[in-house]
Design goal:
alpha/beta; Rossmann fold; Arc Repressor Mutant, subunit A; 2 domains; 6-stranded mixed β-sheet; 11 helices; 45% helix; elongated; Sig_transdc_resp-reg_C-effctor
Amino acid sequence: MRSLSANNPVLLVTLGQRPEAITVALDALLDKYTYDEIGILTTDPKNSGIRRAYHALHTVLADDYQQYKFTVDDYILCHPDGSPIIDLDTNYSAEAYFRGLLQVMKPIREQATPIHLLIAGGRKAMSVYAMLAATWLFGVNDRVLTVLTPQELMQSGFYHMPSKHAHSVQVVEMPMVISRELPITLAAKDIDEMIATQSDPARRFIESLSHARKRVANALAQEDGISNVELASQLGIVEKTVENHLNDIYKQLAAYFDIDHLSDAQKRQMLIDVMRGRV
């Protein structure tokens, strides 16, 4: 990947059996955006079922977009041993595909370069994992996109929509939860750390609590409707100490769950649910 402009987004596309969906969407996107790079997220282009789609897409990008200045780069997603993924047919290959997506997107995000992720041309499983990776990494300037086009117009080999049907092409921005990670914090994390943090956040939150805070959280979760005064009496501490512990606990909880928008009562209930194993 070459050095990227801080202004122009990178377009990443998931490649499956429908390369036509990618170019039809690209035609519409190029009316609105200037891309420095088109990155093709792909399984093994030599041995998997997307070989035809891979070569067709490269041919069309090379022949039909010569007036544009973007580069085209392949991101061949691999297993941990370095062998290219052929298909998402096992849990092992699916996990490797997801990890590969994170490895591609994270360095771009670290540079604060906007990412547009187009999930129109991939299989459903690929699209789901790509969406998940985006929720882990994407900021307010990043986009997840798909294309909506009448099925009868999406014929095999039909890489550009005739002008009379151009109005039928809708590139839709998918709703997405924005990641809490900033580029500067991403740079300090490796992929294994990110996966560990995101996996079972409730357990990791509880493990992060000090002994004193865990006592307060456990006592709160053991009895419905217990007040801070009652907690203080039960634990042999003053009410102000309970309040301080709870405020600190909520700050820790916010590192694992999106609770900043919640009221104090809702944060309290969220903590109870986490401690009771409901989350």
